[in-house]
Amino acid sequence: MFAIDEFIIAVFLVVDTYLPPLLQCHPPRRKGAAPKLSDSEVLTLEIVGEFLGHHDDVKIWRYFRQHWHEWFPHLRDRT
């Protein structure tokens, strides 16, 4: 069984391994300012947040902002 920090790292590594080839075929954005968080970071937040029972974006954002801010320093506001 993973500790929560090991779980977050494992999810990120899997997402970051398999996501870039998908994004090359189907890029999610073409214009505008670059986002502060990477796509892999955002998907990691969503996957881990859902796994922990936080079923909406506000709860996921609050959880990571409170407990894991040092791992996601660009997680400033919910927008």
Account of the protein in words:
- 58% of the residues lie in helices and 0% in strands.
- With 79 residues, it is mostly helical.
- α1 (4-25) crosses α2.
- The longest helix has 22 residues, at 4-25.
- The protein is globular and about 35 Å long.
- The model has no long low-confidence stretch (mean pLDDT 89).
Summary keywords:
79 residues; 0% strand; mainly alpha
The H-and-E topology, N to C, reads as HHH
Number of helices: 3
Question: From the helix content, strand content and strand pairing, which structural class follows?
Answer: mainly alpha
Molecular shape:
globular
Helicity level: 55-70%
Q: What is the strand content?
A: under 5%
Distance between the termini: 33 Å
Q: Count the E strands.
A: 0
The main pleated sheet reads as: none
pLDDT < 50 stretches? none
Q: Supply Rg.
A: 13 Å
Query: Average pLDDT, to the nearest integer?
Result: 89
